[in-house]
Fold each of these.
Amino acid sequence: MEEIMFPNKVKSLLLGLLLCIIPGVLFAEGFAESSSQQARSRYIANNGVILAPEDIFVDSYLASYNYGYPEPETDVGVNIYNTLNRPDSSSRNHLGREGIIQVGLQGKTWGFSELPPLNLVLVVDTSISMNEDNKLYWFKASMGNFIKKIRSVDSLSLVSFNNTARVAFEPTLMDSLQKRRLFLEAVDKLYPQGITNLEAGITLGYEQIIPNFRENSINQVLLFSDGDEFSTRLSMAKAHTGDIRISLMWNNRNDLDLYVVTPRGEVVNFKNPRDSSGGWMDVDRNMYGETERPMESIFWAENTAVFGNYRVYVQNYAINEPRDYPTPFQVEIKNGREYLYFEGAVSGSGRSSQTEVCSFEYTGADTLDQIYQLVELRKQQGVSISTLGLGSNFDEELLRTLAEYGQGASRSLPNIDVMNGVLNTDREFQRIMVTAAENLELELEFTPGIEILEVLGFQRRIEKNRVICRIPSLHQGDYKTLFVRYRIPPQNQGLQVAAVQVRNQQERKPIIVPEIGLYTDGNTTPDLPSGFNRVIVLTDQTNDFAARMLLHSRAVLNFAETIREVGNHYYNNAGDLTRLETALRLDHEASRILETTKRSLQYDNAYYPELGILAKYAELLNDRIGENRRSFMNESRSRMFYEDGGSFSRMTQ
């Protein structure tokens, strides 16, 4: 094996994995779960809600953006983009020149007829909440086209779950029209009732697929759910999550309160909503008996929870119901990645009503729930799971983590059109179904002396001058992206920036490819050696192609940062007219940049979702600014009236 070294012209290397070296800059990763988050955020924003700044993850948004990597000729393409800023006379130039390396993985999209046989179990939530917005109908309607694409070599099964789970359609090879008709009849008989027992549904789904496991096939569980009552209320309340989340739910207008005693002896409740370690009561309902579906929640963000024993109590602060009956309640505890559930009831009010719920030990975020252990076990047996969240109130973290452990993908389906697109478009279907590569590790080793300034993207760690990324799986047609910003100091202006390697994570061997193809502006010329250990990235001038990519990427980055900054101005003292006007100005500027970029790149349909969100934000901001101005005028008139001894009143008599 030999080492390949070359400057960053617009070219691609094909080595069983395709490597494209193109100057340019894009951003962050495109891992599957980010697609779910991006779709859900768009849905919320387009429905008249300005997202809070803590709910905007620029890293994840940029990661989920489809930059249109070249379609690889092999299973996976690895695209490397690099650019180095031109020297200038700015005050920062004495620190050295800054550059950007971006690595994008692209799975090849095969024709549906070329895929291995499918052995699928569709596990469908049929709890009563699936009746809201006709979500169960979405599933039924999408199955008509879905069954048409299923081939005679494919096997299907259907499991429904609410309080319990049942097999609605036994595992069947779909090799006749009669079997397809029976499958659709089983789908049509599904109806919503009861609550959501997710574990029962997943367990029964695996029980259908394991006895019918097929070698050289895609064996997968497809889970469809809109979440349970806890996830629905938490989502509606915009509750946060992290290392620990403790949530209280009840079903009347009484004002129940959640109390948590931390290992340090601090109490987190409505009187003391934050503790010294970062614990925060971010949801507190029914102070005025305003709802019959209340929720309270306390959370510790990632890497903030103190190890030790936590004690949970519930107390009724005030009785808002006409009769003083005991109030039943439920508590959900997210302890790392383990979920615990408790039930109880409180009687009376005040201190005498305080009821101890439980205590638990927090030992770190790696604690695994039983359902995750099951998913991990089935993955080792060759069965994956992909999760599809319907609507906007499902537990996104739960479904995403299930897919992570199950070597699948996670998607948000906010409406019936998106659901049809995911299930009945070959490329999107393959992005959740078909694995192109597993257990890869990508390493960027920077030349000594080069400073790593920022890293965004899929799972990674930094070890001195190396950025190492773990890629458990990449699905066909899917994409992942890594973004590294670096600085070359003035005393070290050599040609070599970094060495890039891709290897099998388990064997720790470089990937060897039988042949290499070189791409130049989309044309293939196989004129390079037949293998390499690593690719050396050199500094050179950015060409016109890379400049267009850079322009595109900056517009995307500016949009993501603007959305976060608008949320910051909107929610931090929203009564401040100056802050609202600043937010509106930022919104208009981001729209202008997107429109200008679209014209420059001649992308007529580019940035349609982003421009739609900015337009909705502008509408909401203008409404709030108008309300604040009217309120200010009314207050001013009121002050003048009282200062003048009621002269306004006398003038109108």
Note: The longest helix spans residues 608-643.
Amino acid sequence: TSQSNISTPEISPNTTSFFKSVSNLPLTTTLKPKQLFQKSTSDADLIIKLKQTVARQKKTIALKRVTISKLKKNLIMSRIQHRQNKSVHFMNFLKFPSENSKTLVNMQVSHSKFKP
């Protein structure tokens, strides 16, 4: 008899009533595997998330515009600098009859109206 008591544990009345109440619960609806991990969000939450995404993307676009405009400006300045260096380098090879004529040509080359 001691063998039978060891193999079957005694269940308290509270435990039996708990098991009965659990067995009487309605079955849950079966969810598809994709739906198990989906967050249930309302339309308002979705709209807020979309607005935040749009605001974040506007910021990144603005930053990229700033970067592009800076790069364009640097490119233009480097082209102007290259052109000026080229003209200065070219001016050093020329022979002028006087310093005044060299100064006059330098002024004409460096002035923006006369640049091609």
Note: The chain has a mean pLDDT of 78.
Amino acid sequence: MSHSASLASGISSLQTRVASASSRTQRCVEPSPRCRPVAAAMGLHTEGRSSAVGVRGSAMGPRAFQKVTKSASRIGRKTAQVTCAIADQAPAVEMSELPDEGFEAFKAKAATSNLIPLFERIFSDQLTPVVAYGCLVKEDDREAPSFLLESVVNGDQSGRYTYLGARPSVEMVAQGNKVTVLDHVKGDRQVTTEEDPMIKLEDMSKAWKPYKCPELPETFCGGWVGYAGYDTVRYVYSSKLPNEKAAEDDRGLADIHFGLYKDVVVFDNVTKIAYVVHWVELDDDATLESTYVAGCKHLRTLSKRMQDTVVVPPLPAGKVNLDLSKRPALGKSNTTKEKFMEMLAQAKEYILAG
């Protein structure tokens, strides 16, 4: 096949993928109801009935790929930039020449919102979530807060989206009623006593007015990610299950630990597009223009870190020395059936007694 025929075939395939993604219905969210300790991740995402403030939209807008031919001509690269956009802004943004219309669009959104997403779309055919995570989190920094979340449908099918993030701007850690808030941007640390630390998360999010972006995927795109432990039920039923009567904590684990991730990468496993998202929070002490320029530079650095590191170092081969077609052998119980039934009956009595 000639070079021109191969390129034409690649462009046709790309346009088919873009057309499919562009046909999705664009939707937006409303502020969400109060969350409870059962929440594990919440933030700038898609469904209005989910557990925190949210932003969503279709995966691609109708003008998202105005330069399809130009992008397709770089098909031989490990990753190809599709676009750098703010909301409905499609053309690529170079840091050396920020387009006036880009800032004007940002300024229009700032009139009604104080949290605005800047994002790039990149092809993820050869950029896996594991490789991207390795690019964002250095080997000597693996204990720092970060996450990689896969989605599964019906327990045995890979879901459409994969999410990853690192370097939260804020962390909230609760042990009992002691709450510690670490602001990594301001270098600030606050320790307070809260009756229900989960309400603290809500209070910290109340001032947000996120822009409802129609071009981001209809899924989680940034916000609070973390865990709420089993004992957080004590915050809800403090009269019946006070912290003072809890078993001694011999491991020093936090009851709640959430990080606010304003830098998130969302992999769409259907369209093979990765969304690199950076949320810009407006600051009264900075001008809109300087905030926009700083946000674009931050986004470009974040995206470049993944694309420049994608080929080095290569991942070592992993081996699985297990027969995955067979169920694992049943373990030996450490109690008898009679003792187990007795424990179960006692647990039911505890539940009835509150």
Note: The longest helix spans residues 288-309.
